[in-house]
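Pasting as-is:
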Amino acid sequence: MAHSKESDPTEQRRAGIAAGRLDASAYKENFADLNPRLSGHEAIVEADRCYFCFDAPCMSACPTAIDVPLFIRQIQSGNPGGAAKTIFDQNILGGMCARVCPTETLCEQVCVRNDAAKQPVRIGALQRYATDHAMAAQGAQNSGSAEISHPFTRAADTGKRIAVIGAGPAGLACAHRLARFGHEVKIFDAREKPGGLNEFGIAAYKTVNNFAQREVEFILSVGGITIETGKALGKELALAELRRDYDAVFLGLGLSGVNGLGIAGATLPGVEDAVTYIARLRQAEDVSAVPIGRRVVVIGGGMTAIDVAVQAKLLGALDVTICYRRGKARMSASQMEQELAQTKGVTIIYNVQPVRLKSNAAGAVSAIELAYTRERDGALAATGETFELAADMVFKAIGQTFDAAGILADVPLALEQGRLKVDASFATSAPGIWAGGDCIIGGEDLTVAAVDDGRRAAEAINKSFAG
């Protein structure tokens, strides 16, 4: 990581939160692709390590049940296009999932190579190799065309029309599968561009070169899908009208609410939502223009906490500390993600929780008081010991909530634990309306899980048309 300009006297006099903390060349280096794609030779060598298990545990561990041994064998035999089709058949967002999936706790964790060689087959890297190869393919008629050769052909038009609310992983996966069946799909999204979490909520160094939008274009190239942005349910759209005008509705709304800290000082200037900040950084044309504090504290223990902490360090923050209320083993961010943060210079303090935030003379956040915690029989309790960390920027990364206010007024849907209740086919309590992704009860905070929900819901919707 390139050096900071903090040693300059002029820089030291700057406000606690500022942009342009690093030399110009540092930003390109810091926000380069975290895990570059394997070369063809590297992919063949890695594929050769696979045992091609008949009863493959990696396939069972994949939420979308990709036939991992088959696609790896296809790579081994020099057929990356065929490998990509195998992946896309189960997971049309396989390219993004190869970049952001915690494969170390899913397919790679159960790889039998762990027993034989203490090192699993790099399934995620091989998946990226295959999907990137397919998405880079040019139109057959014109090698200079920007068209993407799609691995699937759309069935004949059925005359059925489906509205999909939310252009995130669940909505895109649902729309693509429905389009393959020959149905016409209209996707509506509240934001200015599609992609959902993939576009707005993932660290910039994990998905470079505008990959999220290129993946959307790839999905749309199957045909039969249109997208309208700037259309939010409960504002520009009414659920009752959508149900009236379309043969089915799928809700892939995600989580729009953010949990609060619930402590004094939580609204001070300098206290921000991690999700909002990550979105701001992802949409910035120039990351050097995004301001960051000198001393940053992140409250939380998930992937979002890791993403915002690492990016704060890459933007030039001097000290970045993640504070998590439970022990290391309970942190939802994977071990690999925790190690990534630490190698980038982020400090992680376990078993601490925020007590209050303090302000400086200007009224902005200046410090956070934390209390040590301990667990007994699963219950969390403060020990009575407290300490302070200086902070001119504090990020909340303590989870999101489903905000149903206003969007379900005309068609009340059953909720459970604050999220939409669905049955085994992802049908909601209202006929003709299905849902999937983070907005449903039981939804996991994983792109791959949302994709699986969307695909399975599409299959249920298609089946409903046949009676």
